[in-house]
Amino acid sequence: MLTKAIREKRLQRSRCLLSRAGQSVVNKILFSDEKLFTIQEVSNPQNDRIISSSVQDIPEQLRFIPRRQKPASVMVWGGISANSRTNFIFVPSGVKINSKTYRELILDAEVKGFGCKNFGNTSWTFQQDGAPAHTANATQQWFRDQKIDFISKEQWPPSSPDLNPMDYSVWSILEQKVCASSHANISSLKACLQREWLKIPQDHFRRAVYQFSTRLQAVVSKKGGYIEQ
């Protein structure tokens, strides 16, 4: 549930981004995000229906999906643009993503080189959400020092997974593919994530990126309200 203040910020910031988000600009935005994946199978109730006259007629092993209390997991960072994708970055076990580790593991190790390789000497823009590691002053200053244009913490609409292509078009696909069954260990999970990430057609990413302006307009039309994922 969005508060009145959050809706107002989403409305105003979406308007501002819309004014600079023509297709030629959207083509040069690198959208990014992190997501936690576990070795546990993800259950979809819509796909797991069993027709039976009574519960007793259903074999016991099919009545319940076993769940581990704290399944092993890995944090993944990735990014897409209209014409390319980043390498996947797997955050080492036990490492907390704060401003320092975010800059070292992701910005220095991947983002800087990606920009040079994929955008050359032309200007481009980096997008990230409002996570604390992203909005920290040291992180924001990193972009200024590197002379990389970015959507600052004062510009990105808060509580807006519906505006990030990684959220509304990428993570769900990977989760469906990777977590359709459980994994024996983290190594298996990582290998599957990497494989499925590379299988997604670039055209899918391009279409997702091109939806950005349309979604900004939809948020404006809804006066800052959520739009469907």
Descriptive notes:
46% of the residues lie in helices and 11% in strands. It has 229 residues and is an alpha/beta fold. The chain has a single domain, classed as Nucleotidyltransferase, domain 5 (2-Layer Sandwich). The chain has a five-stranded mixed β-sheet, sandwiched between helices. Helix 1 crosses helix 9, helix 4 runs parallel beside helix 6 (137-146) and helix 7 (165-178) packs across helix 9 (202-221). The protein is globular.
Overall pLDDT metric: 90
Oligomeric state of the chains in view: single chain
Number of β-strand runs: 5
Give the helices and strands as they follow along the chain.
HHEHEEHEHHEHHH
How large is the share of residues in beta strands? 5-15%
Query: How many domain modules?
Result: 1
> Helical content, roughly?
40-55%
Give the class from helix and strand content and strand pairing: alpha/beta
Rg value: 20 Å
Which homologous superfamily in CATH is the superfamily? Answer: Ribonuclease H-like superfamily/Ribonuclease H
Number of helices: 9
The CATH class: Alpha Beta
Q: Just name the CATH architecture.
A: 2-Layer Sandwich
Overall body shape: globular
The rounded distance between the terminal residues' Cα atoms is 15 Å
Q: How would you characterize the largest beta sheet?
A: 5 strands, mixed
Residue windows where pLDDT falls under 50 for at least 5 positions? 45-50
Question: Which strand order spans the largest sheet, edge to edge or round the barrel?
Answer: 3-2-1-4-5
Report the CATH topology name: Nucleotidyltransferase, domain 5
Organism: Oopsacas minuta
Domain Tc1-like transposase DDE: 63-189
InterPro entries: RNaseH_sf (IPR036397), Tc1-like_DDE_dom (IPR038717)
GO molecular function: nucleic acid binding
